[in-house]
């Protein structure tokens, strides 16, 4: 796997429900074709050349060394660290990435820094070792469909949906906190489906984040606003009935509920509990 070095790693994210973030890989082999916002920005700023360059990821070889310097600097400012917004921490079929991610989580937890994790890959069973990784991290998957043909078209090299769900359910069954990002949710002209089926497949999770599809000309669906309002209402109804915390991303529904941005800002619990 290709590698790069960086001058810094931890940064404060501008994403509405996030705090600090880490992206310890440049690029992502999943090759999502929505298109991927992170890829668009990296291309615009000249970091990558094109799609082919993006799906040949480069690992940040000095990530752990940077953490050792930056944790003391930011420790008192961090509520939690998110992995990741512009790459995937458990990139499918990339064990080098997973190994580094596990080391990063372990290192952050050592200083009682909680992690939120989001992947289109597979969560390793090793995460259930709460003596090593702690039990107040929150592990999530992106799940916007259950259709195999949709995945082949728009998330071609990511983990199969069923595998993602089963790995997440395993963590849940072991007592860990789990969540799902249903974003970017496709409009019917891209994929006709029933959102209830997606929701029911992950009814065991603690939290759900829902958001619309942007940056795709095909997302200019005629009844876009009405469609996303209806889907958001269904997500809220489902979560309220199941006792699941939720956040609807800004711009997805007509009236934004800013209060739910705090979905991951739980009380500062110790990472390791007796």
TrEMBL record:
Q: Which SUPFAM superfamilies match?
A: Radical SAM enzymes (SSF102114)
GO MF term set: catalytic activity; iron-sulfur cluster binding; metal ion binding
Q: Per its UniProt record, what Pfam families does this chain match?
A: Radical_SAM
What InterPro entries does this protein map onto? MJ0683-like (IPR040086), rSAM (IPR007197), rSAM_sf (IPR058240)
Q: Where is the Radical SAM core domain?
A: 22-200
What's the superkingdom here? Bacteria
Keywords per UniProt: Iron, Iron-sulfur, Metal-binding
Keyword Metal-binding annotated: yes
- PANTHER family in the record: RADICAL SAM CORE DOMAIN-CONTAINING PROTEIN (PTHR43432:SF6), SLR0285 PROTEIN (PTHR43432)
This protein's name: Radical SAM protein
What is the scientific name of the source organism? Answer: Candidatus Portnoybacteria bacterium RBG_13_40_8
